Amino acid sequence: MQWIGELAVSALILIGAFFLLVGSFGLAKLPDMMRRLHGPSKSTTLGIGSLLIASMLHFAMASGHVSFHELLITIFLFLTAPVTAHMLAKAHILRSQADRNSLPSTGRPDGWATLDVPKRAAEK
Amino acid sequence: MAMRFFPHPLLTVWIVAVWVLLANEVTFGHLVLGLILGILIPLATSAYWPGRPRVGAPMMMIEFMLVVLWDIVVSNIQVAFLILFRRGDSLQSRFITVPLDLKSPEAITVLAGTITMTPGTVSSDVSADGRALLVHCLETDGADETIAQIKHRYERRLKRIFE
Predict the structure, then answer these.
(1) How confident is the model over A96-115, as a mean pLDDT?
(2) Which terminus has fewer CB within 10 Å in chain B: N or C?
(3) How far is CA A48 from each of CA B24, B73, B111, B140, rounded to the nearest angstrom?
(4) Measured between beta carbons, which residues in chain B are less than 8 angstroms from residue A78?
(5) Given this model, what pLDDT does residue B1 score?
(6) CB-CB contact of B126 with B114 (8 Å)
(7) What's the whole-model pTM score?
(8) Residues of chain B positioned with their CB less than 8 A from the CB of A25
(9) Where are the beta strands (DSSP E) in chain B?
């Protein structure tokens, strides 16, 4: 029975390593800032996720009790990764004149928060 | 009175749970220390978080998490495929505007985070009045289809949970 667990752990580590590599490769390969943001912000979630599941499985089999630290790492990662991507995108919109001019309309009286002040707040 | 000392009861429960998980063992000492932190941190930060989000529909929450987890797996494979087998210049990347039905700031935050973690989309900005999201798509055929999918898969469920 031991070898099934070891096989599962090995498979998960390989899957994780593959997606992390693809994410980093995307960062290097894609041509512009906004496209580059997609590589690391996504391929890493499944990559890190697989590695953490592998770690949980391995230590559950080795020591007999389940560790919850991996679960916490996953939660913190899911909380912080979108915030980082969001801040990078906002900084890019602020810096790039070309992208700023090509943004779609908000469909609202106010513009985008990075570039515009809400009308109600401005009147105060 | 209870509101004054526990401005965010759910946050208190969450902090205690995270503290016990960090310690990796349930003992009386860790519980007490977690509880002290769980009372002090919401008190210290309540000035920056004046709203009281209503969170309900626990079954919907589980459904939402499963849908998101499934989408993360699918999107990872899709994005990996795009990165490996397509020339960077040939990707049809563009910004789209997603009008929001959600009003609660907490719900919009969760939606924006979910969009970033799932199929080829990164949420990049919010409109100044908080009623539309700017989303960057790595590869899209039609903006309407992506918007419909976001609204159907995520926003509909979040509306049930938060509003």
Answers:
(1) 79
(2) N
(3) 21, 12, 22, 26
(4) 113, 117
(5) 53
(6) no
(7) 0.84
(8) 83-84
(9) 94-99, 121-126, 132-137
Which tokens hold the place of A32? 């512009």
Question: Domain-by-domain residue ranges, chain B?
Answer: 2-48, 58-162
Name the pLDDT band for A7 (thresholds 50, 70, 90): very high
Q: Taking a C-beta distance cutoff of 8 angstroms, is the pair B151, B161 a contact?
A: no
> What are B117-138's pLDDT values in tens digits?
876 788 888 888 888 888 888 8
Residue of A nearest to B116 (CA): A82
Assembly ipTM: 0.81
Say if residues B61 and B110 touch (Cβ distance below 8 Å): no
pLDDT digits (tens, 9 = 90+) for A20-30: 888 888 888 88
- Asked if B102 and B162 touch (Cβ cutoff 8 Å), the reply is yes
How many beta-carbon pairs under 8 angstroms link A with B? 146
Name the residue in chain A with its Cα closest to that of B83. Answer: A26
Residues 41-70 on B with a CB inside 8 Å of A are none
**Do the chains contact at A118 and B136, CB–CB below 8 Å?**
no
